[in-house]
Amino acid sequence: MQTFTLTSELLTLDALTGDDVELMTTYCQDPIFEHTLTIPWPYAASDAEFFINNLVVQWWDDDDEYTWAIRETGKTELLGVISFRLYNDTIGYWMGEPHRGKGFMKEAVAEVCRWIFSTGRPEVRWEALVGNKASAAIAKSLGFVYTGIEPASSEYRGGTHPPSWWATLTAPDENPSYAVESGQPWPF
């Protein structure tokens, strides 16, 4: 698939470029990322270059995962990254520390979910390692229904699949043929 851009009044979600390497490397020094993301640790500029120039390109080419840079509309600065994994319908995201708490991530997740539902997919799944309250707060605020703890779908450092919180957001006006597990309170 060719990369494409999603836009809202607040944000533009577009392709990561070589110009994003420096900021991505800086953001990925955040100690919280060691425990919440699958990124190499410690994180180097070569990791950002490989991610942007190889992994993201291959995922788009293979229709496995669509990954976008998050930017304020009309600006070029990288704020964070958001991805949708087509092979298991999961959304994942991270925001650089200086840009947290400003509503950017909630808007980015909402925009990607709107696009996903426009393609006819009936649901989006969210996951985050147990304890990632910031990511969970975004999912909860957008109406994702918490479904429990399962192993992480992605392999983490050391080849493990640690316990992750999972939730599902069903497309508006959809009547799925399965029962979405409900009644479980969010774990925070």
UniProtKB/TrEMBL annotation:
A Pfam family per the record: Acetyltransf_3
Keyword tRNA-binding: no
Segments crossing the lipid bilayer: none
Superkingdom of source: Bacteria
Keywords on record: Acyltransferase, Transferase
N-acetyltransferase domain segment(s): 30-172
Signal sequence extent: none
InterPro entries attached to this UniProt entry: Acyl_CoA_acyltransferase, GNAT_dom, N-acetyltransferase
Family that this chain belongs to: Belongs to the acetyltransferase family. RimJ subfamily.
Protein name: N-acetyltransferase domain-containing protein
